Amino acid sequence: MSDDAQHPRFMGLTGRPLSTAVSVVATTGFLLFGYDQGVMSGIISAAPFNAYFPEILYNETWQGFVTAIYEIGCLAGAITMLLYGDTLGRRKAITTGAIVMIIGTLIQVTPIKGHHAGAQFILGRTITGVGNGMNTATIPTYQAECSKTTNRGLLICIEGGVIAFGTLIAYWTDYGCSYGPDQLTWRFPIAFQIVFALIILVGPMLLPESPRWLLSKDRHEDAIKVIAALRGHRMDSEETRLEAHIIMDSLRASGHKGGNTPFSALFTNGKTQHFRRMMLGASSQLMQQIGGCNAVIYYFPILFERSIGQTHEMSLLLGGINMIVYSIFATTSWFLIERCGRRKLFLIGTVGQCLSMVIVFGALIPGNPSAAKGAAVGLFTYIAFFGATWLPLPWLYPAEVNPVKTRGKANAVSTCTNWLFNFFVVMITPILIKNIGWGTYLFFALVNACFLPFIYIYYPETARRSLEEIDLIFAKGYVENMNYVKAAKELPYLDEHGIEQMQRQYGFFDEDDAGLEVLGEKQGHGMIMTRDPAHRRTPQHPQHPHSLRLGPHHAAVHANARDHTRDDGTLPHPRPLCRDRPNGERRAARDRQRKYERRTADGGRQHPPPTVDASMEQRRRPEYNLDIFADLACVKDVVKAILHTIFFHRYFTSISPLTRDLLDLTLPAIDDVDLETLIDQRTIALVRAIDSAHQPRGRGQLVVQFFEKKRRKTYFFGKADEDVCWEQWTLDVTLAQPRTEADVIKVRRAMTKSLEKAAHKIIGIVNRDKDHIPPITTTDANPFPYHIIVNPKPVPENDWRPRIGLF
Q1: Positions of the region Disordered (predicted)?
Q2: Which of 100, 261, 460, 551 has its CA 20 to 30 A from that of 625?
Q3: Is the pTM of this model over 0.85?
Q4: Is 254 helix (H, G, I), strand (E, B) or coil?
Q5: Contacts 24+ apart (CB under 8 A), 713-722
Q6: Helical H runs in 207-273?
Q7: What pLDDT, in 10s, does the model give residues 430-467?
Q8: Whether pLDDT at 266 is above 60
């Protein structure tokens, strides 16, 4: 492939210029959205417009309906994207929305008086709304999926911020046209939106499709081409391939099987938490609308005329000034969104809006013009807080918080919520103002107050997180049974390699993969495998769950497993370490033990067979030490891999073997829910204990002990069962915290070397040291109990407690 082909371009652009072009088109779509929101505010009360459409004059219900019917169209457009958005793709959906908006605009500006002009205007406004609903449901998703983690929040906030600039343009366009001819007063402001629509019609045709949508449709080569173009890398570069792998891992983790996402996927939970994440995004749009924003934006001139008593021209002028304030404060979110985070801005904006509405209704209570002017202050502060916080955030949050599998549909649901309640608020506001006056603003103040506890409890922070890291926040909260806000605080910030390891920790990968190559030695049934880098992501589905692709020198072990597999898919443990003893020795040991148990049970005075003193036995038990080195992102995964490797060779009961992939190694594991839960608990406790030390290089220890039950005499209690430890493994864990990219590379190499060395040591030990393993003398499901201890305290060698049968 030529060098030019390895550096793909769109519109002749690559890297940052191409990302900027994507942002310009996306921003223009929301500029048009803001323009449409504000254009009717100066027209709805204009005399030429009311003369042309007399049914609207002095009729609050008709005023609300003509303005709000646009939201019904937007709702229909969002529902269309909910049903067909994943099929169309991001670019086609935006282009289709622009075409629909142009058609709707032409219908609005061409009615003829006396020929059902009102019906034609309403129809055109509805169609325009359909196109805008399609765009607002798609553009944030398109922008989020094409952006880098470092600037995704900023770019989507710019989208949200330009809504204010669109509204500003609409207000001043209305104000300027109010001094022109009667037809110009309302036809030109409505027709002017075609300029913006043409930009978002042509732009997507020249720009790339979303790489995440392409991967969800199994168009891998196209996706790699787009990723390389957006990032300015070569198609065959490691960065391009790694980003594509991580996106595919997130797709698999969310249950994506290819093709279109079914609507039912929105209502699933588990570690992906699709339903919760959809509801978080939809709730942000709900709260934006019922907080009263459009009661202020759409009806600002009317509020000044009827609530404060200004003339129509002065109301338009004040509305235009208010929109300048709105636009200025909307830009502040661009600088605060990554610094303050989403949660803080949500909470600050809610408090500000609530207090502003309190000022408005408090100033309107006396009912005199001088006091009513104080309400203008409340309206200005409300629009300032709204522009800086609640204007962009509900468009950013759903696009971030939803996983790639359901992002298109879930974002459409949140947009539907926005337009549904937008219609509701715009429809009832003129009616509320006419009937309850200042009570309207008291209502919105109380509604805003109700938002605070909900946001504080349920909204996790997503700032400075990649979209795949956000998936990990919800997986962590579900797996570790913790509040998702707390999970977001506890999850460290990860690079691509850290994300990959955490995805493994929470089970985001298929267990069966191709390209397995044996590194272990030809002995026993221990195994340690590495993954061929050329086949890192090639899934395999063997005919038998245990018929992994191993080297020829392990064929006998797995052939034996296939021959003795039970009907339920589990393996009766072959107990190779006990069978390695000569048959006569095993029978003699078993006979001696049974004879002794019968004598002690009958109360006989015969002496038991000679035994070793318990304290001597404790001292003589094998103790093995393993040095583990890992960083914070991988420590849980590394420790769990070592523990599973130990238990795979010491779990003398029926097992369902698995493999776990880590740092290009494939290690054995056991499919046992109780064991997995215990390992998770102990691993999390270890990491927390190390992290709480606040040291640059923390250390911790895990001890695994295996016991046999023995019957022995005690000083006070006669005879009792005693758990005697016959083997102990000590994991000395060192936690590194790399600060630079060079440190990350060094730590990763050290982790790989440490893990490989520990795994080889385990394999060597279990195949060499066998004689100390006690005979199985019980029919219990697990003949040898085990303990996993975090940072154990040393017990004195001559401790008195074991002597009296307490331990």
Answers
A1: 561-619
A2: 551
A3: no
A4: coil
A5: 714/803, 714/804, 714/805, 715/803, 715/804, 715/805, 716/804, 716/805, 717/804, 717/805, 719/600, 720/805, 722/614, 722/802, 722/805
A6: 211-216, 220-231, 238-253
A7: 778 778 777 888 899 999 999 999 999 999 999 888 88
A8: yes
